[in-house]
Amino acid sequence: MRLIKFLLLISVCITSLTAVSLHAQSTAAVAKVNGVVIPQTRLEFMVKAAVAQGQADSSEMRNALRENLIAEEIIVQEALKKKLDRDPDVLTQIELARQAILVRAYQADYIKNNTVSDDILRKEYETVKAQMGDKEYKARHILVETEAEAKDIIASLKKKGASFEKLAGEKSIDVGSKNNGGELGWSAAAAYVKPFADALQSLKKGNTTEKPVQTSFGWHVIRLEDVRPTVTPPFEEVKTNMQQRVLQRNFAAMVQDLRNKAKVE
């Protein structure tokens, strides 16, 4: 609902600032507020957005959206009385919002008008399968800021028999895993940055790295909990994801090509 209100506010502001006649937009009206018509098209747009987010089209939802439209029209009118539409910061925000809407519209138009053949999607599927490898690893890690801290943790694990899970909870700076004893779950090695992946693949089940492993995140102490064969979902199950992946890559390449051709001074 917050997204709906945000889009509504943008459309109201842009309409107000460009002085588009609301009467000209639609002969059907949702309501009239202090003589200003709220067109039916605006309500239908909001209903469409709500349905796209999983809400059911109902009289209750339509009534709630109508009340939102009325309330926001009242606020917009008060803002215009204060001449807030002339405030430079407000104008900048509206222009940025307008650009964001046009960018999303262009992306949607690109996706709508560009299809990817099954042959290309299957090649992408095979590429992803190869990247995943034939094994998945269940690992734990403790992430710290310095090599000295990591060495101390390894020493505690080897000489003092300290609990890996307890040390992860006490020492790790990885907020996503520390409260689970450093557990990272099942993942292919390719899911990790290369130094981490290399160290993980070199371990035997139940073993911990003898030396700290440095990545861009810091210094890791890694334990391999288990290994299992990779189970790849069938092509049809991930076909939509493959299509999105290819389209995103193609779109990025197209934007880069436009950037290269653009005259930027």
What does it look like?
With 265 residues, the protein is an alpha+beta fold. It folds into two domains: 2-89, no CATH class; 127-229, Chitinase A, domain 3 (Roll). Helices cover 58% and strands 15% of the residues. The chain has ten helices and six strands. The chain has helices spanning 2-17, 22-25, 40-52, 59-81, 88-113, 118-132, 147-159, 164-171, 194-202, 235-261, and strands at 29-33, 36-39, 135-144, 183-188, 213-215, 218-229. Helix 1 (2-17) packs across helix 4 and helix 6 packs across helix 10 (235-261). The radius of gyration is 28 Å and the shape is elongated. The chain starts with a helix and ends with a helix.
